[in-house]
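Researcher: Good morning. I'm working through a list of sequences from a screen, and I'd like to move beyond sequence-only analysis. For each chain I'm collecting a predicted structure so we can compare shapes side by side. This is the next one on the list. No need for commentary yet; just the structure.
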Amino acid sequence: MPVKRPLCALLVLLLCLPLTAQAKDAIPVTMRMTPYQAEFSFSIPDQEYVYVTYDTRFDTGEMVLYAPDGNFSGVCCLPGSGTAMKMGINVYTLAGKALVRDGANTVADPNPPKPAAGLEQMKAVNKITDMELVPQADGVHYRFTLPGRDSVVIRYSSPQEKHTVTVCCGAEYVYEGVLAMPYTYADDNVTVTVLTVGSSNQLYQETVKAYYQPPEVIEKAAEGRLSGVTVCIDPGHQRQTQVETVPLGPNFNSTTTTTVGMAQGVITGRRESQGVLEIGHLLRNALLAEGADVVMTREVQDTFVGMLERADIPNNAGADFVLRLHINYRSDNSIQGIQVYCPLSSSYAQEVADEDTYRVMGTTLLDAMKASTGVTKGNCTLNNTYVGNNWSKMPSFLVEMGYMSNRTEDLKLACPHYQMLLVQGMVEGLVKLSQLRGLIDK
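Model: Good morning. Structure tokens for this chain:
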């Protein structure tokens, strides 16, 4: 199933075109072409995830697909390809190995859009002053007026897709519609440029953030494996952070200065702050379904939560555990795995557990996440590096859930299915930790 649900309209006419599969043991790709989109399917039995790219003269896109049985399907959204033209499609492993490479011809729209009838003739305006761009679940809604021009070209792009469309005005030279972006990740930059037809003179340009709708908070289960347990979820970073100099820990005679940097996907371009927020919301609901009480240090990107505040929130809430969610980055893009960091010699940490016990707890959480995701690499480390850990009065774990610098893990971390595997691993780890701490029956 596709990672993101395509939103282009499915028309009646279907034209089946086979593609030559180049991967060993792969069944040939089948494509069904309609105006403005192409459905495709193929089977690669030894793959659960694949990375797909496609392109025409006016549309390019990329997506991650997941299929536990190796039977993949998806849709290429082609809003700019209203006439017949060549389309290429490529299938890769997440590591970048080519599996399938072929192409087909798009299908022309038999009834292309036309300007509204009866437009008043007037001098063409060369500047848009009333543009409205509103990100929403199916793309970016636009509305503007441009007297004297009955059609314009709109180019819009994100790190995952680019499209060029010619749109026609409605009555009174009003332009309105939705720029479909089914494969753009939440909170990514979307740049919209309006140009004249033919001469391509720029009339307007603006960048907005792609829409993000967090899952609705579910009702806490009356009974569950984690009933009576309070967990604080701390999604690391935020969209705009600030440099802080804060005490390193309650018993340290030193300070540390935070940085404003964060990881960013080497392939997806996603920011760490958005990825951990998505996983944090999924984890919140999974814990509520187990009967736990949940506190979050942040629930939106547009906020600022300081380093000491990230410890104060769980401390004041009387949390039993705090999970600090992060995603790693290294200059060596071959490094993979999940890392769990625990506090070492903070006086608060020593009141929680001795070093050996803390290591057992961190390893317990890590092993549960490895079992859920199939990840084999990663370690539990105790150190004095992280302010939030040092100031926590309960078991605190900074979890680096993978490496955005590694293309395979970067793509997986953007996939909702893999995000849920990480969540399931953390839930199972918290159940075991709650048993170790005597908070629930074994």
